[in-house]
From TrEMBL:
Name assigned to this protein: Leucine--tRNA ligase
Pfam families, per the entry: Anticodon_1, tRNA-synt_1, tRNA-synt_1_2
Catalysed reactions, semicolon-separated: tRNA(Leu) + L-leucine + ATP = L-leucyl-tRNA(Leu) + AMP + diphosphate
Motif segment ('KMSKS' region): 578-582
Residues given in the record as ATP binding sites: 581
Lineage of origin: Bacteria, Bacillati, Mycoplasmatota, Mollicutes, Entomoplasmatales
Length: 801
């Protein structure tokens, strides 16, 4: 009565493949689009962390299908990217071939896990049919004025030979380094493509409100967009106008100096000859500091006096002008009015350089900056007002006098869209003799296959070396191709739409066709999107932006692409540390499937805890999963089945169906398994034949977690495959009224135990059960029983002496 998971896995994989069991259906008016964050096909294959999220979406997809939904559950490859390019550089391999090999491994592993992906919809961002559409979208962005080629300050990584986006950089010892490889990163001005995501900042902010996302992720996006409303005020320094951006115009009487960022274009014009060399040295020093470091409030403040004074436009007071790197060049106007008494950074700066602190808000302490709210003081016409009133009053005055303007700023920067890399999407762009831009409409512009993909070292992409590709002649006019490529986030910003367009592996219908529109209307938005928290800002913001643009173009049918987002927790090593090659604590799914089977691995990862928890790997947990699967298997194959319901399992079965259904709907995959366990225990305790529909219902529920054993048992129960095409069990609410009661067992009137019995159990039987109860036995042995009282459905009382 045991089974071999290897034999069963082989059998059903073959069956599903041959019968195209997982093909997306289009027959219902209910749909569910269940999406995983697609993997980067690295050389390492999938890890058990992938398995966690992918199992969760698979369980959910199977559940929805059995509930009569058309389910879109696809998978593909985020295939362009730096690691493949670097691997190729190191080994002399071709990144295209290398990636294709990795994809094969990933696909084999996903099939090994029994995931019900419709591989007819498999996509790869590096396939020319795919990036043809990525390039087409770029062209639309350009035509809408949302893509622009301009000189921008970029994060340059010499080692990687490319610029990096802010979210590809981390800080180490106060310096910027690349997230991949931790190579030094410096600021540098370069001509680059940028996408104007900032034009969508407000909509990206407002759109968040309607989404079923975890609040912490919404907040991360809100902070990243960083909307802030305030006023720009003109301070005059000699005859030079220096606007500052403030959200606290109510503190204008408390200004004790102004500060310019070292990069501010007026710094040298303002600085007096005596201070010039000191200021110049300071500017040089600031160049290599990371923005993260400059924003870090725990770092000591630095700065220099310019020797000049500015006029407070409202009070007419003269205040010193300083330069400091705590003011960022690319936010607001790159200059601030400092109010040390009410701003922490200004307080520290003023303390260090002995500058005045003027309190203009009532509070109890003058030992630190008071950033709370209170009554305005020491401020002439504003005295007695609260913050809101004072801001309104002063803003009005500033605007009327012409030295102030209301202003909304965003922290969000335009999306830097060029990479000086080989392995990415080429831009469909030609530069004419006078650098004029011509878009190529005949797509795709294919990435040439070349052997030398070394960075040119000059800041240009390796493609710049491929003369025969770069130079194009059309009607006698000579053009040069854009040699930068797009970032990895280009392909991942629309892949959720690509699956809908796919008819066969990397075969797509036109994105602007009527058929595409119909399909988008059917499938969008994604109903459930599961993946790691690391994509909270970058990917999710870019993808939302592209979807908004495509919505505005009349292509997609909804503004927000991802209705519900769920961030899965990590699987840590048995040592509690993050799994990593360097710790030697990585668990390979191939090994586990070989020893315990795919069903056990799936079941274990779903049972280890709530989906969003990060928990360590446990061999014991895995062994228990395998044991339980065998226990469930034995139960089904050895049960004597009957078509006559003795009603004894009515309550537990219906209760379990109800609970499992509700738990899957709310993504509580672990507690749903506990329910299945309760059912198995009840059947083992049950005497006599078991009502067939209950066993069948159980096998259906089991099959969404353990699809191999699910199919096998379904067949063993005498049915033709596939169990995936069966309807989900329904529960009968009338059976949920419990037919048992709890009876109190007393000794001399004191409660000593309780027992659960069927309603109406007769007095003699109650007494018999009570006297068999171990607690009661311990009281009555060696004692004389004087009286026995039993009330049906209520109580047993034994009086002893
Ligand atoms: C005077 C003031 C008084 C300020 C006060 C704050 C508190 P958010 O909310 O992030 O927009 N600021 C403006 N531009 C800056 C820059 N380029 N680099 C660093 N700091 C800058 O913050 C706006 C506030 O941050 C502004 O309001 C300004 O300081 C500072 F009691 O002006 B405030």
């Amino acid at each position: 009565m045991e089974f071999s998971h290897k034999a069963i896995e082989k059998k059903w994989k073959k069956y599903w493949e041959e019968n195209n069991t997982n093909k997306t259906t289009n027959t219902s008016d209910k749909k569910s689009y269940v999406l995983d964050m697609f993997p980067y096909p690295s050389g390492a294959g999938i890890h058990v962390g992938h398995v966690k999220g992918y199992t969760a979406t698979d369980v959910f997809s199977r559940y929805k299908r059995m509930n009569g939904y058309d389910v879109l559950h696809p998978m593909g490859w985020d295939a362009f990217g730096l690691p493949a390019e670097q691997y190729a550089l190191k080994t002399g391999n071709d990144p295209i071939d290398f990636t294709l090999e990795n994809i094969k491994t990933f696909k084999r592993q996903l099939k090994m896990m029994g995931f019900s992906y419709d591989f007819d919809k498999e996509i790869s961002t590096a396939n020319p049919n795919y990036y043809k559409i990525t390039q087409w979208i770029f062209n639309q962005l350009y035509k809408k004025g949302l893509a622009e080629n301009r000189d921008v300050e970029v994060n340059w990584c010499q080692e990687l030979g490319t610029v990096l986006a802010n979210d590809e950089i981390i800080e180490k010892d106060g310096l910027m380094v690349s997230e991949r490889g931790e190579h030094p990163v410096t600021k540098r001005k370069m001509r680059q493509w940028v996408l104007k995501i900032t034009e969508y900042a407000d909509r990206l902010l407002e759109g968040l409100d309607e989404l079923e996302w975890n609040n912490s992720i919404k907040d991360l996006q809100r902070n990243w967009i960083g909307k802030s409303t305030g006023v720009e005020l003109d301070f005059l320094v000699n005859d030079i106008k220096v606007p500052v951006f403030t959200t606290r115009i109510d503190t204008i009487y408390g200004v004790s100096y102004i500060v310019l960022a070292p990069e501010h274009e007026q710094v040298l014009n303002i600085t007096t000859p005596e201070q010039l060399s000191e200021v110049q040295t300071y500017i040089e020093l600031a160049k290599n500091k990371s923005e993260i470091d400059r924003k870090d409030e725990s770092k000591p403040k630095t700065g220099v006096f310019t020797g000049s004074y500015a006029i407070n436009p409202h009070t007419g007071e003269l205040v010193q002008v300083w330069v400091s790197d705590y003011v960022l060049a690319n936010y607001g106007t790159g200059a601030v009015m400092a109010v040390p008494a009410h701003d922490k950074r200004d307080w520290e700066f003023a303390t260090k350089f002995n500058l005045e602190k003027k309190f203009v808000i009532e509070n109890k302490t003058d030992e630190k900056a008071f950033v709370g709210e209170g009554k305005i003081i020491n401020s002439d016409i504003l005295n007695g007002m609260d913050k809101k009133q004072a801001i309104e009053t002063m803003t009005k005055i500033a605007v009327e006098h012409g030295w102030g303007r209301e202003q909304t700023n965003y922290k969000l920067r335009d999306w830097l869209f060029s990479r000086q890399r080989f392995y990415g999407e080429p831009f469909p762009v030609l530069y004419g003799p006078n650098q004029e831009i011509t878009l190529i409409e005949d797509l795709p512009v294919e990435l040439p296959r070349i052997t030398n993909i070394k960075p040119s070292g000059t800041g240009e992409s390796p493609l710049a070396n491929v003369e025969e590709w770069v130079n194009v002649e059309i009607n006698g006019v000579k053009y040069r191709r854009e040699t930068n490529t797009m970032p990895q986030s280009a392909g991942s910003s629309w892949y959720y739409l690509a699956y809908i367009l796919a008819d066969g592996e990397n075969e797509f219908i036109d994105i602007d066709s009527a058929e595409a529109k119909k399909r988008f209307e059917k499938w969008m938005p994604v109903d459930l999107y599961v993946g790691g928290q690391e994509h909270a800002v970058g990917h999710l913001l870019y993808a939302r932006f592209w979807n908004y643009v495509l919505y505005d173009l009349g292509i997609t049918s909804v503004k927000e692409p991802f209705k519900q987002l769920f961030n899965q927790g990590m699987i840590l090593g048995p040592d509690g540390r993050k799994m990593s090659k360097s710790w030697g604590n990585v668990i390979n799914p191939d090994d586990i499937v070989s020893t315990h089977g795919a069903d056990s691995l799936r079941l274990y990862e779903m049972f280890m805890g709530p989906l969003d928890a990060s928990l360590p790997w446990s061999e014991d947990g895995l062994d228990s999963a395998l044991k339980w699967i065998h226990r469930a298997y034995r139960m089904v194959v050895s049960a004597e089945l009957t078509d006559v319901n003795d009603t004894k399992l009515d309550f537990v079965y219906n209760d379990v169906v109800k609970n499992v259904s509700e738990m899957i709907e709310s993504l509580k995959f672990n507690t749903a398994i506990s329910q299945l366990m309760i059912f198995v225990n009840a059947v083992y305790k049950h005497e006599g034949p078991v009502y067939r529909p209950y066993i069948e219902g159980f096998v259906k529920m089991l099959s969404i977690y353990a699809p191999f054993i699910g199919e096998e048992l379904w067949e063993k129960l005498g049915h033709a495959p596939s169990i995936t095409k069966q309807a989900w069990p329904v529960f009968d609410p009338s059976k949920l009224v419990s037919n048992t009661v709890v009876v109190a067992l007393q000794i001399n009137g004191k409660l000593r135990a309780t027992i659960e019995v069927e309603k109406g159990t007769v007095k003699d039987k109650l007494l018999e059960l009570a006297k068999k109860h171990e607690n009661i036995i311990s009281y009555i042995k060696d004692k004389q029983i004087i009286k026995e009282i039993a009330v049906v459905d209520r109580i047993v009382n034994i009086v002893i002496k």
